[in-house]
Specification:
This protein is α/β, with parallel strands linked by helices. The chain is 35% helix and 23% strand. Helix 2 links the parallel strand 5 and strand 6.
């Protein structure tokens, strides 16, 4: 799936996450916890922690806040040579964590960020892509503004022209789209048309194809995938998870990967005692990208395992190493000494 042994190039916006203390609502106390995050940066960090080469392409604001974000991904081992700096601000999101039957909630504040205001011409894609193994990005970029819609398409077209496989995570965020686009399906479809690997479940495919599919029915999940392969001939893999939420601290999670010729789906995994579920989809994407060359079964299990582990880590970014992932997949929960 990937090209050679170069880096996976992850392109997207970094944010500062401000979250209420665990089990509390926003501003219940006069304090918020802060950390740097971002869908594509999360994938880059997770890959680097697994020992897989990754690079981040983004624009960060000048000054100490941008410096802090840059240091966060650099310390994880991510290549940051193509990160741009510009005047402006960093986007924010506020998280009210879930607790019991109260679901988590996110509020975005990312208008006019340095990333959103940087034009497509600022990125030297032939140089950036170079010997890249893959380009990974998500539907969050086109959701921001009409200009960032053009930005993500430019990156994907450059990758296809260079023969670099493209991974696209739908990452549908209704609250972002409503600011400029009342019908995001055609916009997202233009991106999926350029992708080799798509991260999205039957619910996402229902939006793209304007056809209802029941994500809770395995047969419907396969029907949705086959319809997508018919509509998007460049697609080679569709990776997805199925999540059943019992309450904020207990979910059931499974993973599957579809190809035009077949699929593999894992059994359900009980994920209890959840600390923080935000960013677990990015961990899943990293696990799949890291192991897809080993086959559908290995990639699905690795993606599910990395996603599951990230439920017990505060913050969006996965610190799990390849050794820790392998130890988890043995099924032993005993102390490692």
């Amino acid at each position: 799936m990937t090209r050679g042994d170069g880096a996976t190039i992850c392109f997207g916006e970094m944010l500062l996450r401000l979250s209420a203390p665990a089990a509390e609502t926003l501003f219940q106390q006069d304090r918020l916890d802060a950390c740097f995050v971002g869908a594509e940066a999360n994938v880059a960090v997770a890959l680097a922690r697994l020992g897989r080469p990754s690079a981040l392409v983004t624009t960060l604001p000048d000054g100490p806040i941008g410096d802090g974000a840059l240091d966060t991904v650099r310390r994880a081992g991510v290549d940051v040579r193509h990160v741009l700096r510009a005047p402006g601000r960093m986007g924010l999101y506020y998280l009210s964590p879930g607790s019991g039957l109260r679901q988590p909630a996110i509020i975005y504040d990312r208008q006019n960020s340095s990333f959103a205001l940087t034009g497509a011409e600022a990125y030297d894609w032939p140089t950036i892509l170079g010997k890249a193994a893959m380009l990974h990005l998500s539907g969050i970029i086109p959701a921001l503004t009409p200009d960032t819609h053009a930005l993500s398409l430019t990156a994907m077209k450059a990758a296809r022209a260079a023969g670099v496989p493209v991974s696209f995570d739908g990452n549908y965020r209704a609250s972002l789209w409503q600011a400029w686009c009342t019908d995001p399906a055609p916009v997202l479809a233009r991106h999926v048309e350029l992708a080799d690997l798509f991260f999205g479940n039957a619910r996402d495919l229902s939006l793209l194809l304007n056809t209802p599919f029941d994500n809770g029915d395995p047969q419907q999940r396969r029907a949705a995938a086959l319809a997508a392969f018919g509509r998007f001939p460049n697609l080679r893999h569709i990776a997805s998870t199925h999540r059943c939420v019992i309450h904020a601290g207990l979910h059931h999670l499974s993973a599957r990967i579809d190809t035009p010729d077949g699929f593999f789906e894992t059994p359900d995994m009980e994920v209890g005692g959840i600390v923080d579920r935000i960013g677990t989809g990015d961990a899943f994407a990293a696990g799949v990208i890291a192991h897809l060359a080993e086959g559908l079964e290995q990639a699905a299990h690795a993606g599910l395992a990395l996603a599951a582990l990230n439920h017990f880590i505060r913050g969006d970014m996965s610190p799990v190493t390849a050794t820790e992932l392998a130890a988890f997949q043995t099924g032993s929960g005993d102390v490692r000494r």
